[in-house]
Amino acid sequence: MTTNQKGAIAETAIALAAIKLGIGVFRPYGDERYDLIFDCRPRLWRVQCKWARRYEDVVLVRACSARRTRDGLVRRLYNADEVDAFAAY
Questions:
Q1: How far is residue 62's CA from residue 80's CA, in Å, rounded to a whole number?
Q2: What is the DSSP track for 1-18?
Q3: Which of 24, 39, 47, 56 is most deeply buried (CB count within 10 A of its CB)?
């Protein structure tokens, strides 16, 4: 599977779990650093969804974004001004 396919699966699974818990789930229209918006009344949370791997008893989540450019792989960390929470699948 590609990283885009894994990300789409993770976002869908996380959205489904939130909806089952009664949380309102929304998607941003623009190019944002977060994937979903959770309505946890009275607050809205910007949520970045990540695909997680398990190594024995440890869950590994890469809390950065990566994209390929002609200069190579560019990694970028998230900060509190961009994301309120991470959700891992």
A1: 16
A2: --HHHHHHHHHHHHHHHH
A3: 47
In tens, the pLDDT along 34-62 reads 999 999 999 999 999 999 999 999 999 98
Are 25 and 38 a contacting pair, CB within 8 Å? yes
The answer to whether the pTM exceeds 0.90 is: no
How far is residue 47's CA from residue 23's CA, in Å, rounded to a whole number? Answer: 12
Query: Helix (H, G, I), strand (E, B), or coil: what is residue 20?
Result: helix
Residue with structure tokens 């390929």? 68
What span, in angstroms and rounded, lies between the C-alpha atoms of 52 and 44?
Answer: 24
Element (H, E) at 29: none
The model's confidence at residue 27, banded by pLDDT at 50, 70 and 90, is very high
